[in-house]
Design brief:
Helix content is 36%, strand content 22%. It has 268 residues and is an alpha/beta fold. The protein has an 8-stranded mixed β-sheet, sandwiched between helices. Helix 1 crosses helix 7.
Amino acid sequence: MVQPVDLPKYGIPNSEVRKLSSESTGRDYEILVWVPNSYTEETNKTYPVIYILDGQWDFSNVEASIRNNFADEAIPEVILVGISFGGDTFEHLEMRAHDFLPIPEKGPDSPGGGAPQFFQFIKKEIIPLIESNYRVDDSYRVLGGSSYGGIFTLYTLMTATDLFDAYIALGPAFYWDDLIPLPAQTVRAEKFQSIKTRLWLAVGGEDDSRIVEGAKAFYEEANLMKSDDFQLAFGIVKGEGHSGVKAEAYNRGLRFVFGHLNQTVEKR
């Protein structure tokens, strides 16, 4: 019988974890930060930042996509910030529902309704933490999220259009008719005409039909009413489900939200 041995744990190079207790939500979080290789070498350089939700699940996936896209000269170097509940299990579902959804998911006694407080957490606590401790280009911030996080991403897009400059919303959880996290239809039309941003919206072709149809309806409405300053793209990734879509959809989304910032870089 092979005897067990103590082996070193694998971690992502150039990354660190910051513990943060939020005054806005009353919860504890882990803020995961990754910086590109040039960060310690080019000390006068600043970097755009992408903030992603569900860092406990998606941080490593998005970090790999950033490196691969930079290697292909498709995007510039960026700093990645993952907002995490800690750990990697599905025990976070209720916390996610509370923090990401603008209203309770199924009624007043169910999780949800904490999105305004969670938004304040990002605005008043996370962003100042990052921008005071890292060399960031504060003129370009991106927010990304999937499922409930996709709902929160669209909620932020529609209610606070000046905090982020671009958005990646994957598989927004349009499970219930009343869950669409936006103002009334007429107000939304006015919003679409005034927003200056970039939005990559994507779903898996094998996802719940309510999510696929809800995303289609949002895209069609936004695309019909948007101004020329609202750069919008929509993708259905064939053969992928609700979670499996994230690898390809984040990969494409990174190119959409950062590609126009890219400059020719020396191949490494």
